[in-house]
Specification:
With about 400 residues, the chain is α+β, with helices and mostly antiparallel strands. It contains twelve helices and ten strands. It folds into three domains: about 10-130, Acyl-CoA dehydrogenase/oxidase, N-terminal domain (Butyryl-Coa Dehydrogenase, subunit A, domain 1); about 130-250, Butyryl-CoA Dehydrogenase, subunit A, domain 2 (Beta Barrel), CATH 2.40.110; about 265-395, Butyryl-CoA Dehydrogenase, subunit A, domain 3 (Up-down Bundle), CATH 1.20.140.10. The N and C termini lie far apart (about 50 Å).
């Protein structure tokens, strides 16, 4: 059954997406697959997800609405359909989140024709993985406080500095890089580059061990790294403008990238945990406090689902990123609250980590809870996101 209010083209595409996903489920594997992109640590994991994204791209489920001359499939309003269908069947997430949901929107809006033709197709197919070079030790929430310096030299730029919390850095071919090109202006002194990473002279990537014991983030050091001026995006001094394009899309990354995490419905998962956990001499599922807590999360989850439906109605969207960005804040906090509740329900068993035979859900709950803090910080903390929503999207006055 097709979704209401779709055009003939969109209905045909939806039928194609459903048929292809039914006939081409993600292959079974003995590889220890992570819960999300934030936990990618092994080359074999990357290759598994790279092959999945490539298959989805060739089937038309990635780059669906992008023009054919840039490697896309030239549809209209069909990428959201592809994303929903991939999520509906619990398809694996798409690997190249930064490339799909951050680099591509920035290049489409600010890039040259040469940049669009060079970088977009290989990002869509996951042939080239991208990472994001925004955060620095002294420039997290205050992103404009960038100290990584790019100095003009002939036809290129010499970059020196230090980025941190760089997801995918150890696997990336390129980085979207925000760097300072003038110390005379805070915002107008920033420029934006499409920087080579893998094997590029002057770039050193050092993985960071998270509290989960996994490698997910990285530090990236630039020491006299030379970038050709053809890799600058937009004009010199317009880096902040480009970065705002990226940040507007970043919290809608899941929607933009498509796909999902192969997991049980979050509320069903909590209910299943409650039915197998002890509480007060009986089952947690029979405890009224636990039942009430799960119902509260179920209400939020239904609200998120209905908000996603609302986002598909053009007349209800006065700003293209208002709902996606709002959903990003609500969704990440919902996931954190669900993980916290799961840990509470599991009780003492939540101290058992993954691969422990006695751990509930193979140790899912403590791992999800620890990783949930990355979700509410990545791309600017949720507090920063609320400011962006209020000031830049809703047009509210800045708070004092």
């Amino acid at each position: 059954m097709s979704t209401p209010n779709l055009t003939a083209e969109q209905i045909e595409f939806q039928e194609h997406a459903r048929a292809w996903l039914a006939a081409n489920p993600a292959p079974e594997t003995q590889i220890d697959l992570p819960l999300s992109q934030l936990e990618l640590a092994k080359r074999e994991q990357v290759e598994y997800y790279r092959e999945w994204q490539r298959s989805c791209y060739e089937a038309g489920l990635v780059g669906t609405d992008i023009a054919k001359e840039y490697g896309g499939h030239g549809h209209s309003g069909c990428q959201d359909i592809a994303n929903r269908e991939m999520s509906r069947v619990g398809a694996p997430f798409l690997l190249n989140t930064v490339g799909l949901s951050m680099m591509i929107p920035a290049v489409l809006k600010h890039g040259t024709e040469e940049q669009k033709r060079r970088f977009i197709p290989k990002a869509l197919s996951a042939e080239e993985i991208w990472c994001q070079g925004f955060s620095e030790p002294g420039a997290g929430s205050d992103m404009a406080n960038q100290q990584t310096m790019a100095v003009r030299r002939g036809e290129g730029w010499v970059v020196n500095g230090h980025k941190v919390w760089t997801s995918f850095g150890q696997f990336a071919k390129h980085m979207i890089l925000l760097a300072r090109t003038s110390r005379d202006h805070k915002y107008d002194g920033l420029s934006f580059f499409l920087c080579p990473v893998e094997g590029h002279a002057g770039v050193t990537v050092k993985p960071l061990v998270k509290m989960t014991g996994e490698l997910g983030f990285n530090e990236v050091f630039f020491e006299d790294c030379v970038i050709d001026d053809s890799l600058r995006l937009d004009e010199v001094g317009k880096g902040w403008t480009v970065a705002m394009t990226v940040l507007t899309h970043e919290r809608g990354a899941a929607e933009g990238a498509g796909g999902g995490i192969r997991a049980v419905h979050p509320i069903e998962r909590l209910i299943g945990l409650a039915k197998s956990s002890q509480r007060g001499g009986g089952l947690a599922a029979d405890d009224p406090v636990t039942r009430d807590a799960i119902i509260r999360q179920a209400i939020v989850h239904e609200g998120i689902r209905q908000d996603a439906r609302r986002a598909r109605v053009p007349a209800l969207n006065d700003h293209p990123m208002r709902l996606p960005m709002g959903q990003g804040v609500v969704r990440t906090e919902f996931e954190q609250d669900c993980a916290r509740l799961g840990v509470d329900i599991a009780g003492a068993r939540s101290t058992l980590y993954k691969h422990d035979d006695a751990a509930p859900d193979n140790g899912y709950w403590p791992l999800a809870y620890m990783n949930s803090y990355a979700l509410t910080i990545a791309g600017g903390s949720n507090e920063i996101q609320r400011n962006i929503l209020g000031e830049r999207i809703l047009g509210m006055p800045k708070s004092k």
